[in-house]
Amino acid sequence: MTSTTPAQRALAPVKFAYWVPNVSGGLVISTLPQRTSHDPAYNVEVARAAERVGFEYALSQVRYAASYGADAQHESTSFSLALLLATEKLKVIAAVHPFFWHPGVLAKFAATAQELTNDRLCLNVVSGWFKDEAVNLGVTWPEHDDRYVQSEEFIRILRGVWSQDGYTQDGQFFNVRDITMRPQPKRQPEIFQGGNSTAAQAMAGRVSDFYFLNGKSIADAAAQVRDVSAQAALNDRQIRFGINGFAVVRDSRAEAEQVLEDIIAHADAQKVEGFRASVQEAGNASPDRKGMWADSEFRDLVQYNDGFRTGLVGTPDEVARRVLAYRLVGIDLVLLGFLHVKEEVEAFGELVIPRVRELEQRLVDGEDLQLGAELDAAVEQAGQAGGVPALV
């Protein structure tokens, strides 16, 4: 049985996001058929369906050149704006690389997008893992920790020109002088970032609104929530957390697990290994050797952001209980990938999200829930380890 504190019972409902398939090849590096498309019209249909069934966010991917199963790709910011203009409530997170943008130019784009979309654009500032793409496009590739310095300078300029007149900033990577920008957004875009290293966590604590975790167990997610929250507390800030997960929801657990194993069995080994080489070079380049993907195995990398590790595989009831367990250790948003995107977005919204909302309400009403022995133990262990500082 999961016993909860008053603070846990008062938690805001967990939010849901989905990966936008704006690049070809779907969300797994597998030859198993995927009923999905990077076509704009298909993506508008997905966005409208997601909005209808309870998703609050979507995340568009950023890739500029063919690679690792993504042979075609649509640019993230323009694609995000198209989805925003085709929906009414959905927030779309556009992924951007600081080394491909000047922050003043992106700040202007984002301010205009906020005017056009009732303040629904968000930004995911990606410090970078794909060295070959960057170098082949002619930009300088800083060392691992310097990329986080670059990202922090980038974010500070965004926030500065969005909120101040005559903004000036001198940095290692970017300099701006006496910039006054109109219109300044009435509501600044939420800033997301990912990462795993010490440098990533420290940056998140200083400047970001959301910190994305790659797929992790409940215990590992709780530990990272604790560590990044401590960094934010050093700066008198609070930060929210998202986790990546690949959802396979079927009528039985056996059926869901078989789908997962089929995806992995049909992995395109050459492309997975190419992806592994790029991301683990980036992950192991951090001084602490704790960068993203540093410990990922082959089966993890069949899904780009270790989404299988989150374990969202089973019946609607099983997946809903596991989502709630992540919420209880401090996860605010679950970012989901799917094999057949549109139909599974709809099914998740119709079958899983209502079950999560029911469980949340039962917590609010003071009920100690039985999530199952494994999940109850994981949540209890996280609490005993001090892994949920945001909840107390």
UniProtKB/TrEMBL annotation:
Protein's UniProt keywords contain Coiled coil: no
Documented EC number(s): 1.14.14.35
Domain of life assignment: Bacteria
Alphabetized UniProt keyword annotations: Flavoprotein, FMN, Monooxygenase, Oxidoreductase
Transmembrane regions listed in the UniProt entry: none
Molecular functions per Gene Ontology: monooxygenase activity
CDD domains registered for this protein in UniProt: Alkanesulfonate_monoxygenase
Classification via InterPro entries: DMSO2_SphG, Luciferase-like_dom, Luciferase-like_sf, SsuD_RutA_monooxygenase
Domain Luciferase-like: 32-332
NCBIfam families for this protein: LLM_DMSO2_sfnG (TIGR04021)
Protein name (database record): Dimethylsulfone monooxygenase SfnG
Organism the protein comes from: Kineococcus gynurae
